[in-house]
Write a structure and sequence with these properties.
homodimer; alpha/beta; Rossmann fold; disordered C terminus
Amino acid sequence: MPDPSSPPLGTLFAIGGAEAKLRRREVLRAFVEAAGGAGARIAVVPTASSLGPEVVEVYRAVFATLGAAEVVALRPESRAEAQDPALAARLADMTAVFMTGGNQLKLSAFITGTAFGDAVVATHRRGAVVGGTSAGASILAEHMIAFGGSGSTPRQRMSQLSVGLGLLAGTVIDQHFAQRNRYGRLLSLVAQSPSLLGMGVDEDTAAVVSGGTRLEVVGRGAVTLVDGRHLVSNAWTAQPTAPLLVSGAALHVLPAGSSFDLATRTLIGHHTAVADVEVQETRAAEDDLRRLASEIAAEGISPTSYARHLRRGRRGAQSG
Amino acid sequence: MPDPSSPPLGTLFAIGGAEAKLRRREVLRAFVEAAGGAGARIAVVPTASSLGPEVVEVYRAVFATLGAAEVVALRPESRAEAQDPALAARLADMTAVFMTGGNQLKLSAFITGTAFGDAVVATHRRGAVVGGTSAGASILAEHMIAFGGSGSTPRQRMSQLSVGLGLLAGTVIDQHFAQRNRYGRLLSLVAQSPSLLGMGVDEDTAAVVSGGTRLEVVGRGAVTLVDGRHLVSNAWTAQPTAPLLVSGAALHVLPAGSSFDLATRTLIGHHTAVADVEVQETRAAEDDLRRLASEIAAEGISPTSYARHLRRGRRGAQSG
């Protein structure tokens, strides 16, 4: 069991699901960079997924394309398998753990509190990146959202908590937030447990937490925070399915470029982001055209060698 | 033009659309009661609707069933018609105005600032009830939501304001709130104009405002308030369609039984509601069965006279 008194050191990536894998891969690119870029050794944990090797192959291909040195799949498929010390030991030289989407209750049931789960926590504490998408994001929290209905209005017994890995204390992480209309279920959990900070992560968006408290946002959507410390609610007495009273919650919607202090629950700042990948891509295309023109002007060039040349140029630009 | 310095006296009903018209008509029943019950004289204004007499007939039937004395339809179909003093004069002896759903820009275009629109405002100031559902709710506000996209995450230029009747100052009223996932568009308006209080009303739910500031909630859903006074946003500079920063908004989700002070923007209280119509109905059914059993035991009774008897009994119970 890792020592809970030592501060967490690694960066956490809570990704809201459906992160781009082919174009504008901002979220996964940021993950690989945080994991060490060309030195990244990433353990993909597909336990939550009902897909077999397919999901591993997708992430292996994306992480390799983004320049990671090594990608291994570690898939405990039962609590007994997750108790295998040999499996847990394979995390020792990884720079990152990435948990796929699927069913977070499978992660909670098979991993939390096992040798493998404890090894993930230890990996984080020694400074490695730990993250996941969808189910793999929710499991990071101490109190994990298990499931729930959709809809904007919070209702009694709309959602349930289970036990997560505890890498982010005092926070409950929901995902696919805007896309599946999950205000209601997040509010219902915070209404029942106002000490929790509710965090809803949109698709193709990551809540990136460093040093345990500094939240930054990457990607195309937003991270929504509901701070329930001062709220008044009737969640302790309302009838099942009745809409819940939630008065006085503080709401923060944070797009890319935002930074937020999770300890004081205040905005640190916002910069209108470099995130404008469209501008970057347009500039790159303009550069390509300019080079092409000058090269054609200088001498003949074959289409194949030009394409190779372009690929080299793009790769250089991306890693910068 | 009514005197803007005198306080508004009548009760406002902002209904979130799709209010029940056949069973459990809590919202429309509360409207008729506020309009004077058996003394209610209600002007139905179907201007927003693209349906013709059908929509009038629906409300005429429901209001009559709920005991209103008189229901008249007043339908200005252009700005010129709305300037007709004879039409405006017909509001003089009404105890309530009810605006149907449809397109609120039609109400803004045809009514706001006309003789008829001013007469609606004057009707409210002399103590009559003014309300509406869906489009008819949005038009009540000073700053009216004109249209917008759906989704939980606020985005730049997602929604637009137009000019409403001004019966509720400093508030923008959205409707079908939970059902159409409208957090984003309401937040985007409040982010642009943090002085506004954003009000999102669920379907089959009413925000009932008396004395200009006291909000009470009736119906099956909730009224969501977004208080932007202390928020930080980048709405003045963000790129079109980019998700918006909204940090530090105060959020209130108010189900039936809640009361809220719109002037101080604080919760007054909440009682776990009489709203449990199901319990009332079950009890009424049990009473019916008990009476039936005792009546059958005492003497023979014809089905017709029994049905009449039941109707009388139910009506008595409802108005109590």
